C-alpha cells in the first residue's frame, strides 16, 4: 500500500488545489519599485516589503559596486573562519546604534536569525510562550529548541498571564516571543504590557521587528523605540530584507548575548557569512533610515490617507497601526476574484489565504513612494468591486 513519492506528492498538491490554497511565483521582469512588470503588464505594487523604496535606491547600488570591487562577491567562509570583513563590523555597529543596544550580530536572513537564536537560548527544561500569529521562523525556532511551547491568543495578555500562572513554575527559563508588527495583519503587539509581564514572571522577551524597523519610531528603530522601551531582558531581532532594502537578519542586545550567540548559535556559526553586496547595501540602508526621516513621514502620510479613503468608501479594514493594511473577505475565492479584478485595473494586491492566515483577505503594503492619485484610483476600484 506504499504510495510512490510522485503519488504522495500529487495527492497532497490536489488537496491544496481543491481548497484553492495553491500558490505560484509571479515573475517580475523589471526594477521592483512602487510599480512592477508582471507578464508584460505594468502594475502598481502593493505587495512589497520595501516600505521606504530603498531596494532600488541608487546609493545602495553604488555601495554594492564599491564593496564588490574592493572585497569581491562571496564572503568565502563562515564568520569564524574566513568570512568576516570590516564591513560586517560596520553593519553590526550601525544596527546596534540604530537599536540603541551595546551590540548586534548579522545573519544571512531573518529566518535564520530567529531559528538560531531561539534554539541556542532555550532548551528542554525551558518554556516558550508565543503569540499564535507569530511568524513561521519564530514558531520553527521554538520547535527546534525542544523547549515546551505554548501559544497564547493573539495580543491577549490575560491569556498569557493565565498560561504563565499555570506553567511558569515548572520550568527553568521562560521566553515570551512576539512579532512587533504582525506580518499578515499589520497590528502591533502590546509591548509595554508584555514587558511588565516578563518582569513579573521572570521571563525574557524576544521582539521580532521585521516590519517595525524603518517604519515605526522617530528614528525608525521600530516598535520598541515607538513605545520607549529599553530593558536588559529584551532581545531584539529583525531583518535587513524589508525596509532596509537588502537581505539578511540581525539580533541586537547586550554584549554578552552577542558573545554567547557567536559561540552557540548554529545558524550563525555553520553558515557562510552574509555576502559582501548584501552587507554593503544594508549598511547604506540603515544610514538612510537614520538620516532621512522624510521617507518615513511620506510613508505615514500614505498610510493615513489610504485609511481615510477606505473609511469614506465604507471599506472596513482589519485593525492596523503599521504599513500593512488588510481588507478582510469572505473566503479564498472572493479574495482571488477581487485580486484578479484589481490586476485587470493595473494594481498588484495579492490575496492572502489559509494556510498562511486563518481568514482570507487582500493585504496591502504601503510604500513611501506610492502616489496619492494611485491610492485614490485604487479605492475607487475597490469601492466598486467589494461586496
Ligand atoms: C519576513 C519576516 C522574517 C524573515 O526575514 P527574512 O530576512 O525574509 O528571512 C522574520 N520574521 C518576520 C515577522 C517577518 O515578517
Automatic annotation (TrEMBL):
Membrane-spanning ranges: none
UniProt protein name: 8-amino-7-ketopelargonate synthase
UniProt key word Transferase: yes
EC assignment: 2.3.1.47
Domain Aminotransferase class I/classII large stretches: 42-380
Subunit structure, interactors included: Homodimer.
Biochemical pathway: Cofactor biosynthesis; biotin biosynthesis
PANTHER family per record: 8-AMINO-7-OXONONANOATE SYNTHASE (PTHR13693:SF100), CLASS II AMINOTRANSFERASE/8-AMINO-7-OXONONANOATE SYNTHASE (PTHR13693)
Keyword Ligase set for record: no
Keywords: Acyltransferase, Biotin biosynthesis, Pyridoxal phosphate, Transferase
SUPFAM superfamilies: PLP-dependent transferases
Annotated Gene3D superfamilies: Aspartate Aminotransferase, domain 1 (3.90.1150.10), Type I PLP-dependent aspartate aminotransferase-like (Major domain) (3.40.640.10)
Domain of life: Bacteria
One GO MF term: 8-amino-7-oxononanoate synthase activity
Cofactor annotation: pyridoxal 5'-phosphate
Function: Catalyzes the decarboxylative condensation of pimeloyl-[acyl-carrier protein] and L-alanine to produce 8-amino-7-oxononanoate (AON), [acyl-carrier protein], and carbon dioxide.
Source taxonomy: Bacteria, Bacillati, Cyanobacteriota, Cyanophyceae, Oscillatoriophycideae
Organism, scientific name: Cyanobacterium stanieri LEGE 03274
Catalytic activity: 6-carboxyhexanoyl-[ACP] + L-alanine + H(+) = (8S)-8-amino-7-oxononanoate + holo-[ACP] + CO2
CDD domains for the chain: KBL_like
Family affiliation: Belongs to the class-II pyridoxal-phosphate-dependent aminotransferase family. BioF subfamily.
Amino acid at each position: 500500500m506504499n504510495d510512490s513519492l510522485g503519488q504522495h506528492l500529487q495527492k497532497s498538491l490536489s488537496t491544496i488545489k481543491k481548497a484553492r490554497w495553491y500558490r505560484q511565483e509571479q515573475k517580475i521582469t523589471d526594477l521592483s519599485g512602487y510599480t512592477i512588470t508582471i507578464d508584460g503588464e505594468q502594475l502598481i505594487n502593493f505587495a512589497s516589503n520595501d516600505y521606504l523604496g530603498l531596494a532600488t535606491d541608487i546609493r545602495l547600488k553604488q555601495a554594492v559596486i564599491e564593496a564588490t570591487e574592493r572585497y569581491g562577491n562571496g564572503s568565502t567562509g563562515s564568520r569564524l573562519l574566513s568570512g568576516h570583513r570590516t564591513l560586517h563590523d560596520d553593519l553590526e555597529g550601525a544596527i546596534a546604534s540604530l537599536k540603541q543596544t551595546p551590540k548586534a550580530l548579522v545573519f544571512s536572513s531573518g529566518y535564520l536569525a530567529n531559528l538560531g537564536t531561539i534554539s541556542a537560548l532555550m532548551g528542554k527544561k525551558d518554556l516558550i510562550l508565543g503569540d499564535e500569529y507569530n511568524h513561521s521562523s519564530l514558531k520553527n525556532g521554538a520547535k527546534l529548541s525542544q523547549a515546551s511551547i505554548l501559544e497564547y491568543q493573539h495580543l491577549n495578555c490575560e491569556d498569557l498571564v493565565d498560561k504563565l500562572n499555570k506553567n511558569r513554575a515548572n520550568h527553568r527559563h521562560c521566553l515570551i516571543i512576539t512579532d512587533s508588527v504582525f506580518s499578515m495583519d499589520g497590528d502591533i503587539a502590546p509591548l509595554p504590557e508584555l514587558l511588565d509581564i516578563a518582569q513579573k514572571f521572570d521571563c525574557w522577551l524576544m521582539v521580532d521587528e521585521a516590519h517595525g524597523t524603518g517604519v515605526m519610531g522617530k528614528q525608525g528603530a521600530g516598535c520598541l523605540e515607538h513605545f520607549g522601551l529599553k530593558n536588559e531582558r529584551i532581545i531584539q531581532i529583525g531583518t535587513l530584507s524589508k525596509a532596509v532594502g537588502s537581505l539578511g537578519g540581525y539580533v541586537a542586545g547586550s554584549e554578552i548575548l552577542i558573545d554567547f550567540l557567536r559561540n552557540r548559535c548554529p545558524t550563525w556559526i555553520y553558515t557562510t557569512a552574509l555576502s559582501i553586496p548584501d552587507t554593503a547595501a544594508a549598511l547604506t540602508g540603515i544610514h538612510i533610515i537614520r538620516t532621512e526621516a522624510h521617507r518615513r513621514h511620506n510613508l505615514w502620510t500614505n498610510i493615513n490617507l489610504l485609511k481615510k479613503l477606505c473609511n469614506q468608501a465604507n471599506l472596513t479594514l482589519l485593525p492596523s497601526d503599521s504599513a500593512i493594511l488588510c481588507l478582510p473577505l469572505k473566503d479564498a475565492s472572493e479574495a482571488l476574484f477581487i485580486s484578479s479584478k484589481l490586476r485587470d485595473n493595473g494594481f498588484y494586491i495579492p490575496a492572502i489565504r489559509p494556510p498562511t492566515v486563518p481568514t482570507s483577505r487582500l493585504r496591502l503594503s504601503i510604500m513611501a513612494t506610492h502616489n496619492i492619485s494611485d491610492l485614490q484610483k485604487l479605492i475607487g476600484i475597490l469601492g466598486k468591486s467589494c461586496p
